[in-house]
Design a protein that fits this description.
Layout lengths: L1 H12 L3 E6 L2 H13 L3 E6 L5 H15 L4 E4 L17 H28 L3 E6 L12 H21 L4 E8 L5 H8 L2 H8 L10 H11 L11 E4 L8 H14 L6
Parallel strand pairs: 1-2, 3-4, 4-5, 5-6
Helix pairs in contact: 1-2, 1-8, 3-4, 4-5
Length: 260
């Protein structure tokens, strides 16, 4: 679903054979069926990326089914149910789960993928970070730390594996309206409008915005780009913060019915 679903469909539409790995079997199967209905090649695979055994099997299965490995996209979200917090309030198990799904999973997937990419003569890896990896927000220690770590991990891997012909980049999405978030905004249109007002391009993102960026970064057109963390955020992070705060205060004043 969401960003991962859009990425898999975009790459399949460009000719890639895609292994759709997800903890949600139903979502993975639906996505594979959609890809196949549009003439693409895809297989579904059950994986909990907090478990290293699942990741190892995921890589092995992709190689077995498709005969090699050229592209790896690490896209996982590991904080939910209000389980983030500060260093004082965050529960230790929530911290470990966030690190396992959003940092360790990237390391482990690359660890098992890199040998196959060398055999293929090179490849491209894209790690999905976030604007939260560039700028911090209050009460989100686990998420901000994990997404920041993804950027550092990306740069290090780009240095390590560039000589092998493997490029490694990250994408930092802004607010992307996935299927789940769209349902939330349906009942909160005023708050959605407030989010939209924060973006210079006049809209929030959709999963295809990220999928298109991934498609570019794994293509030969990006052959001289590696170690880069690309914000795909409609200009959210380019704004001077003190001026940005003033503009948001003006928005609230102009919309007195808006409930923050």
């Amino acid at each position: 679903m969401g960003i991962g679903g859009a990425i898999s469909r975009r790459l399949a539409g460009a000719g890639a054979c895609v292994l759709v790995a997800d903890i949600n079997d139903e979502a993975a199967t639906e996505n594979v069926e959609r890809i196949r209905s549009e003439g693409g090649t895809a297989e579904a695979f059950h994986a909990d990326v907090s478990k290293t055994d699942d990741i190892e099997k995921m890589i092995a299965t992709g190689v077995e089914k498709f005969g090699g490995l050229n592209i790896l996209v690490n896209n996982a979200w590991g904080v939910g149910g209000g389980r983030d917090g500060t260093a004082e309030t965050l529960e230790e198990d929530a911290w470990h789960y966030a690190m396992d799904t959003m940092v360790k999973a990237h390391y482990w997937a690359v660890k098992h993928a890199i040998t196959h990419m060398r055999k293929a003569g090179g490849g491209a890896i894209v790690n999905i970070s976030s604007v939260h990896g560039l700028l911090m927000s209050i009460n989100h220690l686990a998420y901000e730390t994990a997404k920041s770590a993804v950027i550092g991990l990306t740069k290090q891997m780009a240095c390590d594996f560039g000589p092998d012909g493997v490029r490694v980049n990250a994408i930092c999405p802004g607010h992307i309206v996935t299927e789940r978030i769209a349902k939330h905004w349906e009942s909160n249109p005023d708050k959605q409008a407030f989010f939209v007002s924060q973006y210079p391009v006049g809209r929030t993102g959709i999963p295809d915005d990220i999928a298109n960026a991934v498609r570019f970064l794994v293509s030969d057109e990006a052959s001289f780009i590696t170690g880069h963390a690309l914000p795909v955020d409609g200009g959210l992070t380019i704004q001077l913060q003190e001026n940005f705060g003033v503009s948001q205060a003006k928005y609230v004043q102009a919309n007195p019915s808006f409930d923050v």
